[in-house]
Specification:
Number of helices: 4
Structural class: alpha+beta
Shape: globular
Largest sheet: 2 strands, antiparallel
Radius of gyration: 18 Å
Distance between the termini: 35 Å
Order of helices and strands: EHEHHHEE
Length: about 140
Amino acid sequence: MLFYTLQGYDLTSFSGPICLDKGTYRDQPVIKESQKKLYEIVGTNQVIWLSQDRPYLGASAVCFLHRIEARKEDIVAFIDGFVWNHIIGNSQYIPEDEHRKLRHALVHKSGTEYDMALRESEDNYLRLNIPTDLWGSEIDPDA
């Protein structure tokens, strides 16, 4: 399986162990605590985060982008990006493809009417899709 990862070091010469104090999110307490809880659940903190989507990199990106072929047995866990964003406090996060669909459905509206309808669509999407237990990923059937 092909994955991408952004790291501040060169993985071709990396020889571990992973030092969490040098991690990308070391200065962001909510993310650091969420990662700590996740590492307890999966049983290790020696994790390289991968994505199946190639990240967008601005011209000033300083990190190394790596393409990694991983075997299924090398994968500790799959994390739902939508759920993870809500765990770390991105309370209005909607995946780009889904958000595009919401905007596309409103093309006939304009100005303030569009803004209000989009906010309503976003709120409805979030209400229907955010799990009641983010760590258990159960969607509230009564929403």
